[in-house]
Amino acid sequence: MNAILTIILVLIGAPILGCLLAGIDRKITSRLQGRVGPPLLQPYYDVRKLLEKDNMVVNRSQNFYVVIYVVFVILSLIMLALKADILMIVFVYTISSVALIVGGMSTGSPYARIGSSREIMAILSYEPILILYALSIYLLTGSFNLSALDKASTPLLMYTPLIFISMLFVMNIKFKKSPFDYSTSHHAHQELVKGMFTEYSGPGMAGIEIGHFFEYVFLLGLMFVFWNINIVIGLLIALIAFLFVIIMDNITARVYWQWMLKVSWTVLLIISVVNIVFLYVTQIKMV
Amino acid sequence: MLGTTVMLLIIAPIIFSLLFVALPKSLYKVLAWAFFLVGVATSVMLVLDGTGKVEVTGSNFATFESIVLILEVLIILYIFYVSAKHKNWPTLALIAISTFLTAYSYMNIAKVESAFFNIDQLSQVMILIVNIIGTAIILFATGYMDQYEEHRHLNRQKTFYFTMSFFLAAMNGLVMADTLGWLFLFWEITTLCSFVLISYNQDEEGINNGFRALALNLVGGIAFSVAIILFSTNLNIANLSEVGANSKATAVILPVALLCIAGFAKSAQMPFQSWLLGAMVAPTPVSALLHSSTMVNAGVYIIVKLVPAFANTPLGTAIAIYGSFTFIMCSALALSQRNAKRVLAYSTIANLGLIIGSAGIGSPLAVAAAIMLILFHAISKALLFLCTGEIEHTIGSRDIEDMSGLIKKAPLLTMLASLGMISMLLPPFGVLLTKWVSMEAASSNPIVTIFLVLGSALTTVYYVKWLGTILSSTMDKNITHHLKPETYFPLSFLGLCIVVTSIFVFTIYNYFIQPQVETLLNIAPAVSGQAGQFTSEIGAFAYAAIFVVLALAILIYFATKNMFTPRPAGYYMCGENNLEKDKLMFRNGLCSYDKSSVSNIYLQDTFGENKLTTLGYAISILLIIAALAGGVI
């Protein structure tokens, strides 16, 4: 019964929360740029308007991938809310990322294909870190199930500070924000048109936006897990991660994808591995 | 009853191989269908007969023993003949050593009175793979080889089908034989058959690559015969199943390590990987047969069988690190390849590395993962190889970049190839389930885990790249592509197998894997399954939920499809479209048009073969030496 309640809460609450997050993002960004910015609910108005537009497609199957993306983002969020196996959650989340990439490529537009192949490189950069994050939870609790963290008395962050730093960058990559916004961008300064989503418009684009709302909540949920023993501090951690992403977005310029790959496979991966090795050596257990 | 089935499994493919020689080409299609049905029937019969040992004694044994001896002599003479004919001195030297060892073991090894076939669940799984997937591949070949030979002006189909069928007989023998001497004969027959098949084209490249395969597998064969001699003289072991029982003796470690090296060579692990890459010159059905369902599986089969001898020993740890190292190295190499067959080749080596790595970890969960991966990998990889062959016939290229727009040219083929790729990297399909199990099982060994994590990210990248390319729709003209039943039936059948085995993964687990792990390690993995979940003590894989959600997604798509009528449009090209031509043109500064072309990222400078292969050789050889040293000390 509780599980069903959680699922309903996710299905209704997450898009609202995600929509507000997107609105806050735009508000803060415009203030940082010295603009007034759109109203808080602008992302919602956008989606409503997009849904009314014509369904212009290049390829009749392109919207199928959007459905897969949205549905699997929701599934991974539900699994996170139900405290399922974290490794499994990462894999399910991969389905949704792959669906977006293939969707972009399926249109055949050169802009979309460039965006998609860069996003594939993003997977190469962040996926190992996500799995190491899952591994650290296993090492500390003896189980990949997130529910094992409930019994912990100390927060995860105490033993995984380096993985936390890596995860902050993963957030930046997954939110598709500067300096990692090379596959597609929220800003209008892209030379790649809209990268992966170039050929998406109307309802298809609305679907992607709704998926993003869920994805925002999901990603911040992963950060929340770092301090899940106290809801307030956990939410605060998630909020800090969110603000970090927005501020990074506004103070940095986008870089080459090669740079991101270098940073993630050297600095981020090494500090994560150091953290993991530390957990192995000390054999600390949280429960 | 079991004894009859065992004999039938070896004799039926031999009969078919002779029929292929005797009957004219026009009957090959009928013959292949019959072979497929017989293969399915006999392998299912074996599963229904249950497990057990079959002893061959008395006059039967004497007859078989002389057949074995004659065949061994014939193989040796044939290899001497071909290597002398083509003046291939390394092979000649290796076969000379091998002959010496065979003669030595014939003179010195204590004679046994009987031989055994040991049918356990692993044998059953292997028999199902060999006889169902193997015959499906031969069926596919009947629709493929005519066109292939036409392009290359060859007429060697009799040799081709004879060798392919004979190969299946040898493979069946290999996975059922318990007596090491017999197992070794089947082992050498598969080596020889692979040589014949790889050098099928009879051009210089084919023959060279054939010899490379022969030489490297002879190295493995030599390790194998030394192991037999050591087993027999020091420990009085003549059967594979006795090896595990003697696991406490220290003298057992060295021959076990040697057998593992023989397995590495057969499974084309680094540093032996070059034979598998070279084998890609052969026709696609050969690649599919050697690299998914038979040849390479022989290597991992023997390693899994040896698990009780090295589980939780330093040798086991060395094997785990070695296997996972091959996994990451070959995944990285696959990333830099444009040639679809080479991508598949590296992916095969990588996945076999994962199987070996899991076997090396040696915990019940890990061994279960290894056996399941053998099964799921065989199905998915057979489908992918055959699809690549069919794609090559459709578009005339095996370069991944040339495959863009395939969805418009051959929709069914593209769907099947996509299914194959998705099943290699995404849940809820079997390969990912096993990857999940092995990751959870490996979490006790940090080096192995980190290799697995990085390797699996690389795997995702090279498959998604390819998947996106074949699914991308270009504005190219559609080409007509007719569907032949003998090519499309095996493809669809394999596709169906992927889905069915993934849905019934827990049934398969209960029926085959769990009893097998119990036989090997005396403990069952702590895995339970309720409500479509695969639950271990440290996690849960909810595959049913994903199937349901996937079905839901498809439903949602079709339900909402009509709410928004699609209006087709051309690409957005920044207002510079050339709508008259093929719509992929940009207008340049001279007011003429340039074609836009986009290609995937291959990272050749980082993961290219010239960058990584030497490193791979060095580290893998060091690891093998470490494993051997661990065995001796």
Descriptive notes:
The complex is a heterodimer of chains A (287) and B (633). Chain A has 287 residues and is an all-alpha fold. Chain A is built from 9 helices and 1 strand, in the order ααβααααααα. Chain A has helices at residues 2-32, 42-52, 62-81, 86-106, 110-141, 161-174, 202-224, 231-251, 257-282, and one strand spanning 55-57. In chain A, α1 runs parallel beside α8 (231-251), α3 packs antiparallel against α4 and α4 (86-106) packs antiparallel against α5 (110-141). Chain A is globular, with a radius of gyration of 19 Å. The model of chain A has no long low-confidence stretch (mean pLDDT 90). Chain B has 633 residues and is mostly helical. Chain B contains 26 helices and 8 strands. Chain B has helices spanning 2-22, 28-49, 58-85, 89-108, 121-152, 157-176, 180-198, 204-235, 240-245, 253-266, 274-278, 284-293, 295-305, 307-310, 314-335, 340-361, 364-395, 406-409, 411-425, 430-442, 446-471, 485-503, 505-521, 543-561, 604-607, 609-632; strands spanning 52-56, 115-119, 527-528, 534-536, 539-541, 566-568, 585-587, 593-595. In chain B, the strands form 3 sheets. Chain B has a 3-stranded antiparallel beta sheet, with helices on one face. In chain B, a hairpin with a 2-residue loop joins β4 and β5 (539-541). The model of chain B has no long low-confidence stretch (mean pLDDT 86). Chains A and B meet through β1, α3, α4, α5 and α9 of A and α20, α21, β5, α24 and β6 of B.
The largest sheet of chain B, given as strand count, sense and whether it forms a barrel, is: 3 strands, antiparallel
Oligomeric category: heterodimer
The global form of chain A is globular
Number of helices of chain B: 26
